[in-house]
TrEMBL record:
Residues 458-477 have a biased composition (Acidic residues). GO terms for biological process: lipid catabolic process; phosphatidylcholine metabolic process. Belongs to the NTE family. This is lysophospholipase. Pfam families: NTE_Ploop, Patatin. It comes from Dinothrombium tinctorium. PANTHER family: NEUROPATHY TARGET ESTERASE SWS (PTHR14226:SF29), NEUROPATHY TARGET ESTERASE/SWISS CHEESE D.MELANOGASTER (PTHR14226). Keywords: Hydrolase, Lipid degradation, Lipid metabolism, Membrane, Transmembrane, Transmembrane helix. GO terms for molecular function: phosphatidylcholine lysophospholipase activity. It is an enzyme of class 3 (hydrolase). A motif (GXGXXG) lies at residues 131-136. The keyword Transmembrane helix applies.
Amino acid sequence: QCDNTFSAWTQRCIRQADCILIIACADQEPTVGKLEKQLDTFAVRTQKEFVLLHKEDGDKPRDTVKWLNMRSWCSSHHHIRCAKRMFQKRSPSKMKDVYASVFDSHPDIHSDFSRLARFLTGTSIGLVLGGGGARGAAHVGMIQAITEAGIPIDIVGGVSIGAFMGALWCQENKLETFTQKAREWSHGMTSYWRQILDLTYPVAAMFTGEAFNRSIYEVFGDRQIEDLWLPYFTVTTDITSSCPRIHRHGSLWRYVRSSMSLSGYIPPLCDPVDGHLLLDGGYVNNLPADIMREVMGAETILAVDVGSQDDPDMTNYGDTLSGWWLLWKRWNPFSKPVRVPNLPEIQSRLAYVSCVRQLEKVKRSDYVTYIRPPIDRFKTLQFGSFEQIKDIGYAHGKTLFTAMSQENRKSLHLYLQSDKNKMYSQQGINISHNASFTDLAEKVCKIREPKRNRETFDSSEEENDGYPSEDELDLENVENYSDGSKLRQRKSLM
């Protein structure tokens, strides 16, 4: 910990630091401290992380963009909820007594401080929620099973309905309110009157999108992605530039809606930043576990797939196909059923061809725990079956994580053990209340290099076991993404 002035000790700390944490209280007016202004020139190459402290019983984050616009030198930001004792002034003796009891208690791996520690040490756990329409209700049950299994969620990413459910979890971060709001939104999607009133002349889409926009705005309001409790991203398909887009900041409801824009039903959304037309991200990557790994830096990833499964059993009808013959086969009760895709089904299969290869790669990767609940019998627009789909997702997750706990699976066993303190002992971290600053520094220095997002690589890094190789990162695919987060100046979009 450096001084609050630019002293010789502060300069020494900055020169030796691998990462600088800039901490501020969220309930204060956004400002830049005198010492902080000198960081941009004194520590150019050092990673800087911005930490906003919130009272644990306080309001949800707001106006984070104002803080970040003043700090172009910060790599990312973190919202941390703190106990009341963090905001109270105490005498040194009182502080010693308080933290003696804290050190004697078991560490809470679900706290925001633990999440920040995992981020800094490259051991974050990411949750990726795939697209699939009404089948996305299984995400609600799966998140319930994950939390009950004792697995912390550090980063969330989603596509289509997964973008909505993921953003809702990052906003609420409480299972009861998260489930209730997801249920209310799903039931609202079953309103036939709303759909009829939103119909339009089908030039670009069947519906104007106004009713759908309103339903999403009622959930998120004018909140920005930066205001979510957890780091979050979603993916859309940019049909203007013919490329995928990753969204990590900006208007939350707009980018969630963009990632849910099913072609033909609702029109593409115009990006408020550059005016590009954005459609459902599922057309290019319906389960973006690769982005969670390579861009967000998660080490362990849970990927929940609720996408539709195409029937591979098709009728071999030869070189030509008569529609009249198909009509006769379908109307004749004595003929053998034939399986031939219709025009909408052919278009749907063509739209998702590009993401099939990516999905297979995710299934084979060693850093992803691939999860698919048994929900194939439910249709994409069957939102009225929310409770049933949610319960199936919960039951599947409960069974899966119980089996993982019994098998002591390597990728998740640190978070499934009943004795959570073993996580720290296996990392060689055993700090008592008598530990000094030097002892703490020694422990931290032993933490391995985090596997964070890197845009440049050299040949020497490929020989280091701590860094992934180019084959592991699949740089060719990553470079095809257009990441709006590279824009330095963030805009508050209403």
